[in-house]
Each structure stands twice: as C-alpha cells, then as structure tokens.
C-alpha cells in the first residue's frame, strides 16, 4: 500500500477543537455517557501531536491508570491512521507503549503525568513541563484541588510572536456534583424542570441542573450526550433511554433509575438533595442588569463567621433582578467599608436583617469614632452613615419564600453563591425523612436578603 498522509474525520460537535483561537487557556469537554468526549479528544490528540506539530501532556488522577484510558485511545487512533496511510506516521514517529516520540531527534510529543504521586502533593509538583502545547486532563471530576489546577494551568502559558497565548488545557469531565470548582467557576446552574423529562416521575427531577456556560474570555466549551452521537447502536440508545422511563408499555419499569439517567446519561449535575424551592429562575448578564432602568436597592444579612450576605436588587412588576455583592463574613466596620467601596450612598435603600437592630444603627449613624482621619477621607459614607438602611419588616420565612416563588427571578451571571444557595435550599425533613413544610435553616445568607427586599417592593421603592 502506498504511503499517503492520513485523513481525519471529525464529528460536527468537535470541529472547533481543531481551530482553537489564540489566547484560549481552557477547553472544557463535559456531557453524558456516549457523548464522544474522550473519543473525539483522543482523536484530536493523535492528530495534534503528529500532523499538527503539537507537544501534548496527558494528566489523570494517577499516572499508572492513564495507559488504561485516554492514552490507549490516542494510540489506537494513531495505529488506525498509520495503517490507513500505509505506515506514513511510523516513518516520522516512534509509537511507544506510554507515548509517542519523534524519530529524528527523540523528542517526546505525547507523554503522561499523574496528579497524585507523592512528588505532586505540593504545588511545585504541579508546574507544567516546558514547551507543552496542549495538556489533557481526563476524569476531571476527580481533580478537586482548585489551587493546584490553576497553578498547573498558569504555568503552561506560552506566547507567540504576536504576544498571543498558544497553549491550553483540555479538561474532560463526567457529570460532577454542583460543588466542583469547575462547575462553580465556569457554569451557571439552571434547574431541570419536570416538563423537560415527562418520562420521569416529576419529583425525581428535583435537584438536577443544566450547566449553562459563563461568558469567560479564553474558555471554550463543549457539551455532548448520546443524542449527539450518530454512531451509537440503536439498542444502546434504547437502553440509555429506558433508564429514564418510569413506565414502559403501561407497566412499571423495573430498570427505572432516574439518578443514573439524569446524571450519567443526560449529563446534569446534582446536589443530592430533593425538595428545592427555587426551581425556576433565569440568568442575565451584568450588562443586561446595569441597563435595566429601575431603582436599585440592597438587601443585607449580617455575619462574621457566617457570610454577611449583600445583594443589589431591581424590580419591575412581577420581575425581580438580583446580583450578589458579598458572601464573606465581615465585622461591622469592614462591612461598612465594603459597602462604601461598592458605591452605596447615604441615600441608598438597604433592607437589613431586623434581628440585629444595633448593627443597623451602627451602619446608619456612621463609624467615624472608630476611624482614623485618613480612613474617614477614604470612606466618608461608612464614617457618617448609610442613613437609609432600614430593618426588614419580613418576619415570616414561609410567607416570604412563597412571595418570591410567585415572581420571575433573574440572577446576574457570576452570582455563584446565590445560585449555589438556590441549588441547596430545600424543605427540611423530620427523623423519618418526611417533609416538614418548612425550609432548612441553611444556605440562606443571600436568599434571606432577597426575601427582605421582596417584602417592600411597591412600598418603599
């Protein structure tokens, strides 16, 4: 068979993988089972480290497990391309059991590294190898240390002659839980509705979330499920779908497994909780929020060890728009300084937790007596008082939650802790696991201020 350069067939869903623009630093490939994530990334890697001229490093939870996973798939793609091209690749590359090298100079263009070797337990061990063009991390749900991940990603940075970054990390991830740093940092959570999956029992859909990508510069997103894979056998597709059907042919389905279906097949992430209150809200951009021509007011919950939840709110008719401003615990002076820095004025309406009247008075009348002359000059509103801070009249939690649920809630993207509270704020259960009809007293440091503000819409503003 004559030698010819291998040809690459790429699915439509992953064509953009072959033309990643400069200044991209992270490529996220998430989705459900059968969505071709690992298959297509491994095909790309086989191409990129040979015909594409890239140097690729593969990382996984343990180096000893890598050769059982994506490395094996990459080498399989290499072998197929090499055979179909009459040995074209073997003319230039040496295919090894644990990577690929250039024949002419012995340089490694595909090699591996594990995440949890003893030498990698410290951040220094996560620094990138020189001249890596693409790093591939598989089973990213097992990578839980944000600091180590960011340290590694940032150490890879390499610029071209135009000053553009040219190397990046591909992060392959099976459906994670909502607390994974990748979910929190790069996605907004949109609750799955019972109407999205009429094949399931409605209550079984509680606690699952679609991942909506945030608009972050330098990040490229891929999300696929079995529905995007035209090569799956029909019997496999039917098997996947049957996990989500509570009834088949009018009879209860013994294989019905809603968690496996919604999480692993559909690719939704989950809190593991049921009975969430806030199942319907939409996400808006900061620009959209700023452009709203409605009065902006503020909601405030107090906390030093727990978060001092601060939000800004706009409202119009049945719509309420909310943006997270603070989720750190702060003593009253630091809280006042923060509010001053954020641009709150003496005229700003701030609706605060009525359980702390003394703290409200301190903020209202100012803290100049605790501040130096320089501090007073820098933070004059903190010094002389937020005169329009008021105690919330809302003292009935259930009624306040009911009122909010009757509104269209719009959350500004980036309000990650508010979205996380929405995901976890649910009905409390008794010792028998039965619902009490009352919400849990947790995950409410931003929900409570939202409730305070909602109580005075049409009254105070």
CATH fold label of the largest domain: Rossmann fold
Main β-sheet, in a few words?
Answer: 8 strands, mixed
Name of the CATH superfamily of the largest domain = P-loop containing nucleotide triphosphate hydrolases
Approximately what portion of the residues adopt beta-strand conformation? 15-25%
The span between the termini is 80 Å
Query: Which percent range fits the helix content?
Result: 25-40%
Task: Order the strands across the largest sheet as they lie in space.
Answer: 3-4-5-2-6-7-1-10
- Note poorly predicted spans: 117-126
The domain count comes to: 2
Q: What is the level 1 CATH name of the largest domain?
A: Alpha Beta
Pick out its properties:
single chain; 461 residues; alpha/beta; Rossmann fold; Nucleotidyltransferase, domain 5; eight-stranded mixed β-sheet; seven-stranded mixed β-sheet; 22% strand
Give structural notes.
- With 461 residues, the protein is an alpha/beta fold.
- The protein folds into 2 domains: 224 residues, 3-Layer(aba) Sandwich (Rossmann fold); 173 residues, Nucleotidyltransferase, domain 5 (2-Layer Sandwich), CATH 3.30.420.
- 28% of the residues lie in helices and 22% in strands.
- Strands 3-4-5-2-6-7-1-10 form an 8-stranded mixed beta sheet. Strands 14-20-17-16-15-18-19 form a 7-stranded mixed beta sheet, with helices on both faces. It has a 3-stranded antiparallel beta sheet with strand order 8-9-13.
- α1 crosses α3 and α14 crosses α16.
- The longest helix is centred in the N-terminal third of the chain and has 15 residues.
- The chain is globular and about 85 Å long.
- The N and C termini lie far apart (80 Å).
- About 2% of the residues have low confidence.
